[in-house]
Design a protein that fits this description.
2 strands, mainly alpha, two-stranded antiparallel ribbon, 3 helices
């Protein structure tokens, strides 16, 4: 015997409710995964910042343990200076460029030995 229209409607509503519940569960799983990723990204960034700070303190031979010292460091790194061509760069940009150059030179030296 064929199902009545009311029975068909009830089955379709039940199926729709089941799909809605599954969609809500998937959205929750997605939010949880996104939170985990954000936490892992924050942890990696914090670790990297601590390492960079340690390298800077070691190279400078002094701790930047006060807000005044950190502010002075920031001002110096953001101070602009002109290169040989007259282009303006911050000291921070010059340090970053020197790091990239050293990295590239180190990579090319490794390839030269192969």
């Amino acid at each position: 015997m064929a199902a009545t229209i009311d029975e068909q409607i009830a089955r379709k509503r039940a199926a729709a409710d089941k799909q809605a519940a599954r969609a809500a569960a998937l959205k929750k799983e997605l939010r949880d995964l996104e939170r985990k990723k954000a936490a892992a990204d924050r942890k990696a960034r914090t670790h990297r910042l601590v390492e960079v700070g340690a390298v800077l303190e070691q190279a400078a031979g002094m701790p930047f343990d006060t807000e005044d010292l950190r502010r002075a460091l920031s001002e110096i790194l953001n101070e602009q200076t002109a290169d040989a061509n007259g282009n303006l760069h911050t000291f921070g940009e010059l340090i970053a460029g020197a790091c990239r150059t050293a990295l590239k030179e180190g990579q090319s030296e490794r390839h030269d030995h192969i």
